[in-house]
């Protein structure tokens, strides 16, 4: 059994194909494929680019457990499935592996949370800029309303027209038109 664990540790970095895993556990590839079909929820595999299945350390350990149950206890695949479903098999999944998975998941969640926090900060900055722009636009509109109200009062217009030369009066009427168009045009 120690030799098997040593072999698993050497193969740990490179996942094995079905054929290689079958050679490793001294079974035929057809037997391993049959086990995969029947016990697919219990034997972890890595699916490659072209749909090929590969075994990592955990997958090889599970194949060895299935092989042991077949040979030593002479169980059928359905009995092995029942056995694997009913028992937790603490020897298969070590606590260290579970802790590593949890840490990886937590790190992934932490990274996603940091990204979300950064996004939220940028979003808040953009909303503040929009709010400032809206306030500026409201102030501009208020100024334009005040200017129009001043233009609509007769005293301002009459005093301005009588004391100004003709060309200045024309320029002022043009500016009134421009102010009117600016008021109703969107920037």
Explain briefly what this protein structure is.
75% of the residues lie in helices and 4% in strands. With 187 residues, the protein is mainly α. Strand 2 and strand 3 (53-55) form a beta hairpin.
Annotated CATH topology of the largest domain: Multidrug-efflux Transporter Regulator, Chain: A, Domain 2
**Structural class by secondary-structure content:** mainly alpha
Count of discrete structural domains: 2
Largest sheet: 3 strands, antiparallel
User: CATH first level of the largest domain: which class?
Assistant: Mainly Alpha
Strand content: under 5%
The count of DSSP E runs of length 2 or more, i.e. the number of strands, is 3
Overall, the morphology is rod-shaped
The CATH architecture of the largest domain comes to Orthogonal Bundle
Task: Give the SSE order as H and E letters.
Answer: HEHHEEHHHHH
Distance between the termini: 79 Å
Range of helix content: over 70%
Layout of secondary structure:
Blueprint: H1 2-11, E1 16-17, H2 18-25, H3 29-38, E2 46-47, E3 53-55, H4 57-72, H5 77-86, H6 95-152, H7 154-163, H8 166-184
Antiparallel strand pairs: 1-3, 2-3
């Amino acid at each position: 059994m120690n030799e098997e664990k040593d072999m698993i540790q050497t193969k740990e970095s490179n996942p094995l194909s079905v054929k290689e895993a079958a050679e490793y556990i001294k079974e035929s590839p057809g037997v391993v494929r049959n086990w995969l079909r029947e016990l697919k929820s219990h034997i972890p595999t890595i699916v490659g680019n072209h749909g090929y299945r590969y075994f990592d350390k955990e997958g090889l350990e599970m194949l060895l457990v299935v092989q042991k149950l077949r040979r030593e206890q002479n169980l059928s695949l359905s009995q092995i499935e029942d056995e694997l479903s009913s028992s937790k098999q603490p020897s298969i999944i070590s606590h260290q592996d579970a802790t590593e998975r949890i840490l990886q998941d937590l790190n992934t969640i932490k990274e996603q949370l940091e990204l979300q926090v950064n996004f939220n900060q940028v979003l808040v900055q953009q909303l503040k800029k929009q709010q400032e722009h809206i306030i500026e636009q409201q102030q501009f509109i208020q100024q334009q309303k005040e200017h129009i109200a001043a233009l609509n009062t007769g005293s301002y217009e009459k005093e301005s027209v009588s004391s100004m030369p003709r060309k200045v009066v024309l320029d002022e009427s043009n500016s009134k038109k421009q102010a009117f168009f600016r008021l109703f045009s969107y920037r």
